[in-house]
Input
Amino acid sequence: MTLISLLTINRSFHGTGAQETGKALIESTCKKTQYPEECISALESDPSSFNANLTGLTRIAVQKSESKLIETLNIVNKFVLNETDYLTWGFLVFCRDSYNASVPQIQAGLQAFDKLEFEKSYRSVEAVNKAVVECDKQGLKMISQVNSGLFRLTKDATSILDLLF
Ligand SMILES: *[C@@H]1O[C@H](CO)[C@@H](O)[C@H](O)[C@H]1NC(C)=O
Ligand SMILES: *[C@@H]1O[C@H](CO)[C@@H](O)[C@H](O)[C@H]1NC(C)=O
Ligand SMILES: *[C@@H]1O[C@H](CO)[C@@H](O)[C@H](O)[C@H]1NC(C)=O
Output
């Protein structure tokens, strides 16, 4: 316990320098988003966040959005394969196809990020967020929770991307 506290204190002291990094930067950045708790837990799940500046953190947020999209797509696809009600199956296919189409888009958005084309990257994340909204309109209760996670993460990622413009 003591060792952990000391490490944490030590880490926060490093964060008070001229350029904020580590936990302090993650928290101050995520405070500027709509869902700070989700933002913090997503960023902190990648250890490299603790050494990243704002640009690095933003890239991680876009990356996390990509992996969350793929994870959600896989879950939706499992429901598609299992569904026996035709109407519900159709709604699930709508979501599955729209998420599937978003994957190459956000991957292009990550490449754009590395070329410092932040606006293009922003639009790719925003497109995923819109796809979630459209999917949610289908009223599929079994995926509402995973959709909510993807919605919040992509919303926060666009807020963080906004800080770079
Ligand atoms: C942020 O960190 C990266 C290396 O991870 C560096 O290339 C870049 O210049 C830094 N940006 C700023 C604004 O300090
Ligand atoms: C799919 O159906 C199988 C067998 O009924 C079940 O065990 C499994 O939990 C279902 N998966 C999903 C994602 O609903
Ligand atoms: C998902 O999109 C890829 C192209 O990016 C396509 O090849 C694949 O067939 C699609 N999968 C489904 C299940 O629609």
